[in-house]
Amino acid sequence: GQCVAVCPVGALTEKENIWSVVDALVNKNKVVVVQTAPAVRAALGEEFGLEAGSLVTGKMVAALRRLGFDYVFDTDFAADLTIMEEGAELLDRLERYIEGDESVKLPMLTSCCPGWVNFLESQFPDLLDIPSSAKSPQQMFGSIAKSYFAQKLFIPREKMVVVSVMPCLAKKFEASREEFKVKGNPDVDISISTRELAHLIKIANIDFNDLEEEDFDKPLGESTGAAVIFGATGGVIEAATRTVYELFTGKKLEKIDFEELRGIEGIRCASIKINDMDINIGIASGLGNARKLLEEIRSGNPRNLHAIEIMACPGGCIGGGGQPYHHGNIEILKKRADAIYTEDKNKPIRKSHENPYIKEIYQKFLWEPLSEKSHHLLHTSYSPKQKV
Ligand code: SF4
């Protein structure tokens, strides 16, 4: 097909990954769990002739069930978990900074984009103590599925196969990193792209457009509006702001939408007032813009930024390398972003710390953000890599 002509290596990987998923699905000895990233639901429909910006969350869930996954879960659950951990870390750094601790590392950088983490490790080895230590939602999901959820099912982690559907090609590499394995068994076994999922649905002869909408399974399928906006540039930091604001001030957030953090421009900055403090936030999407912002930080942080969100792909994950091709058409990206913010608005709960299943996992399993168990399962560290 088209991909063979454009990118033969990519086509091969694509083929191999699809058939690994099929192998897992037909293996009666395995429990196969799938997680879908926030940006996938805002673009998958395009592969089936639907308009850009069509939200197909319910049809996607139905298709995954038809394909035979035992549990259809949502990376959005893990995005809420990421906010709990990353938000607690930001809160901790800000509180120490206010108390005058000069060793504290600010700005704190978000760490959920492996495209950007790889770039940082090779190009900015002197800045490796700045990112949040929180794992990405894909990896948090895998880690929790193979501990908390496997324990609920009374099965060993080796019996579970975790498949992720991602808008991203860098996620395949992330899933294969040694630090995300336990005794050689990866937290995420197979990562496929949005395009690969579409391919799989077509191979299985499922009439996607005709499917009735269905809901994700519980407990790892429940999420908030804060999680779904991870898919658009600025979304992670907006989600974190919603939670950090309430935890820091103890007050209810009256206006949940932080419009000042949204948009499609490559570099944006905004200030948010939390109590008496102005929190300065920087957002970059696209590696060229990320480099500019990081060079600023290296040269002394002239804008006095406290937190930065960086996404390697222009527009964030909605424009990821595993999404249906958008051929640089910015209108398509805007429509996908609109779909993401619509899903956020339609969610009954829009702040990560209010997700009842997140509350439950802390009560029963993790105890609290940044606990020893959370550190063990949900955090990582970075190391310098050779320039490629
Ligand atoms: Fe992947 Fe791009 Fe999203 Fe980064 S911004 S996680 S590289 S899709």
TrEMBL record:
It is an enzyme of class 1 (oxidoreductase). Keywords: 2Fe-2S, 4Fe-4S, Iron, Iron-sulfur, Metal-binding, Oxidoreductase, Repeat. GO terms for molecular function: 2 iron, 2 sulfur cluster binding; 4 iron, 4 sulfur cluster binding; ferredoxin hydrogenase activity; hydrogen dehydrogenase (NADP+) activity; iron ion binding. Signal peptide: none annotated. The keyword Zinc-finger does not apply. It comes from the Bacteria. Its EC number is 1.12.1.3. This is NADP-reducing hydrogenase subunit HndC. The gene is hndD_2. The chain holds residues 198 to 585 of 585 of the full protein.
